[in-house]
Amino acid sequence: MKRRNFIKLAGFAAFSSMLPDVSADYSFSNETNSSRPNVLVIMADDCTFSDLPLYRGRNAYTPNINQLASEGLVFNKAYLSEAMCLPCRSELQTGLHPISNGASWNHSKCRNDIKSTPDYLSNLGYRAGLTGKRHLRPKSEFPFDYLDGFDSKCVRNPTQPARYAIHQAVYGR
């Protein structure tokens, strides 16, 4: 398989997952939910191979990520064209180098004619959800189902609890 086709394939699967448990009124038209694989891509800023135990790192304790990794596919040779937030996120989501998708510098945006992971996966009957840091522009070219529950920015005042922690403390769930 050519590198370009692999990158596109990886882009189609990135940051996406089937979300049948989130919406009770959603169902696949032709297949049962159990006949399709779930896809989950975890991308973290400034996370290196030495951080996660699944890559023999020692800087983080991640038992749930380790469990997911033991039951699925793990990428251990992923390379990006640029080490900046928006260009690398757009590269992963479009399968195109940043210079080709239009987001070749940070705080820029992709061209308006770009297709991304949610576009391709929706044609296959999937829903693509995204939570946490988004930093993909324009939003119209990345039609994810945006889910709350994690900080949407990478930097916040660490003395202030996140919204979901406050919700849990107040409502107990």
Describe this structure in words.
The chain has one domain (3-171). The protein is built from 6 helices and 2 strands. The chain has helices spanning 3-13, 63-71, 85-94, 98-101, 117-122, 163-171; strands spanning 129-131, 145-147. A two-stranded parallel sheet has the order 1-2. α1 crosses α3 (85-94). The chain is globular and about 40 Å long.
Q: Stretches where pLDDT falls below 50 for ≥5 residues?
A: 5-30
* Computed CA radius of gyration, to the nearest angstrom: 17 Å
Physical arrangement of strands within the biggest beta sheet? 1-2
Helix content: 25-40%
**Principal-axes shape call:** globular
Return the structural class. Answer: mainly alpha
Order of helices and strands: HHHHHEEH
Largest sheet descriptor: 2 strands, parallel
Distance between the termini: 46 Å
What does the average pLDDT come to?
Answer: 75
* Share in β-strands: under 5%
What kind of assembly state do the chains in view correspond to? single chain
Number of helices: 6
Q: Could you give the count of β-strands?
A: 2
Total domains: 1
Organism: Sedimentisphaera cyanobacteriorum
Signal peptide: 1-24
Keywords: Hydrolase, Signal
Protein name: Arylsulfatase
Keywords summarizing the entry:
single chain; 173 residues; mainly alpha; arylsulfatase activity; EC 3.1.6.1
Fold topology:
Blueprint: H1 3-13, H2 63-71, H3 85-94, H4 98-101, H5 117-122, E1 129-131, E2 145-147, H6 163-171
Parallel strand pairs: 1-2
Helix pairs in contact: 1-3
Protein name: Arylsulfatase
Domain Sulfatase N-terminal: 37-159
Signal peptide: 1-24
